[in-house]
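Milestone M4 deliverable, item 7.
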Amino acid sequence: MIASLRVVCLPLRQRFRGIHEREVALFEGPEGWTEFSPFLEYDDAESSNWLAAAIDFGWSPTPPLFRSSIRVNATLPVVGPEKVASILDRFPGCRTVKIKVAEPGQQLADDVARVSAARRYLGAEGRIRVDANGGWNVDEAEHAIHALAPLDLEYVEQPCATVDELADIRKRVKYMGVPIAADESVRKESDPLEVARAKAADLLVIKAQPLGGIRRALSIVDAAGLPVVVSSALETSVGISMGAYLAASIADLSFDCGLATVSLLSGDITADSLVPVGGAIDVRRVVPSSTLLDAHAVSPDRRDWWVSRIERSHAILQSQE
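Output delivered:
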């Protein structure tokens, strides 16, 4: 891994998830290029799952595929309503948008204004899902869902932080016909199936890297028995490729997937980026451009930081074996 390692830093077009740039590590295996990109604040134990995924994608053949392209959703960061149209224009053909809500420092009225602007942009037939990243307690979530429901929500993603809270809010809003999706309660829990056993969600949001790779994610999908949305974690086109292969390996994929986030970056490691065309992305391997890898390369000190991180995460994987 270290022999082919390239570490890059890519600026974001808009502050997202509290960051303005994205550092990722890339290396090449027998099956092609792969990505290791846990966020900088993640500890070694959590990061080791991401490394397992990178190894799986770079060293193991992908499972059989059910499709060659994936319908994807646009992603709308926390912005004022006046910026909504210009951001959604970057996602041509996307009929679905996921909108970030419950950001610290924002009010519910700000969320309603942002979602309303997206509804005007999409029209009546467009699909809107909102993502609170666990930012509400149960009472706040109930109040917010009541306020947002008239805008015709496809589902609400991770309205509350814990599995128990998700189960509670799901019961409270069931009569409104607004489904509840679980994200962090799947990828950050020691038992990713707890949310399904507790009947705390109507569907699961799954991500290849945090769950340890395509095969482990598929095993979770099979065991949970719930509909799923495959999503990404602000990856380069190499990481998005991993997510696309995961989505293509799922027989029943009813929802558009959150795999268009390269459009949130102002740069990439390939000139042939996995961005939506007609609302979909292709399922294919990505080969980085040496020119772009050089252009976005981090300093030697930052590369050393990532080498050390890979070594520590790899030691955890070896100890688990």
